[in-house]
Structure formats: C-alpha cells, structure tokens
Amino acid sequence: MALHLAPYVRQAGQDWLLSCADTPAEVRSLWDADELGSFPTGGHWMVAEASLAHTMDAIKLIGSPRRGPVLADVTQGIAWWLLPPTLGDELDDVCTITIHPRGWTLRCPPVLYPVRGRVWIERPDGTGRLTDPVLLGAALGPGGSRLPAEAFG
User: Fold this and answer.
1) Buried/exposed code over 101-126 (b: 16+ C-beta within 10 A; e: otherwise)
2) 40-85 per-position pLDDT tens digit
3) Alpha helices in the chain (DSSP H)
4) Nearest-CA neighbor of 126 among 105, 115, 113, 111?
5) Are 94 and 131 in contact (CB under 8 A)?
6) Kindly report the CA angle at 91 between 48 and 152, in degrees rounded to 5?
7) CA–CA distance, 142 with 32 (Å, rounded to integer)
8) What's the predicted TM-score (pTM) here?
9) SS3 (DSSP) at 77
C-alpha cells in the first residue's frame, strides 16, 4: 500500500483530488471541519464499489504501479476504485462490484488523513493514474484472477 509516500507526493495527490471537485474551496472547508468532500463521477473518473474484503484480495493481485486510487469505508466494509471516465462495459459481468452511474457522488476524505471511517487504501499520487478496469475485472471476477500473475505487474 502507498501509505509511506513522501510528503510532496501526498500533497500532489491531494492537489489532484481537489482539481476533480466541482467546488474545490467548498471541499477544503469541509475537510477543515473534518467532513467528507463531494466528488461527482463521470468527468474525471468512474467508480466501482466492492466489499472491502474483495478489494483487499484484488490489491494483492494488482501491483502498486498498476493501481489507481482506492478509497475505503472501514466502518461499512466497502471500497471504491477510481476508474477511467471512458469506462465501457468491461465490468458488466463482474457480480462482485457495482459501477455507479455518471453524476453519482463519492464522498471523500482528504488524501492526507482519514475522516469519518474513510481512508485512502491507495492514495491518489497526483499523476491522474486510474485502475485499468480489465485488471480489476480479472482480479474481482468469478473465481478470482483470470489473468496470469505477470499481467498484474
């Protein structure tokens, strides 16, 4: 997991996340009050929701260089993977995840610290890297990995 990133990388990830907000100043104010900020899906990313248990299994399979940001709510046992906004039907047959529609709002803590049980398992790093849906589908699909280990990096 990317919990040991250099401070400048964590800040770059936070800056990138704020650039994805409709109202960055409002999100900063919410974060300052230890509240979650709202980020609509579709413009910068799409969101796949999975159980935290399935997510942890997938994280083991998908190497760090190939993973994009992953947010978890540890109190509810769920996680959200940020996927490219061009997501098509690549994950339609994966019953262990839910793809949220464009315009759905993901409520996020800052990259730098958890808020209200939500924490970045894989923090945004500022590059805009998102998880490849084909790799996520292979890792979370029926029976686990459907690709050779080398495909996951």
Assistant:
1) eeeeebbbbbbeeebeebbbbbbbbb
2) 999 999 999 999 999 999 999 998 888 999 999 999 999 999 999 9
3) 7-19, 24-32, 52-61, 133-140
4) 111
5) no
6) 85
7) 41
8) 0.87
9) coil
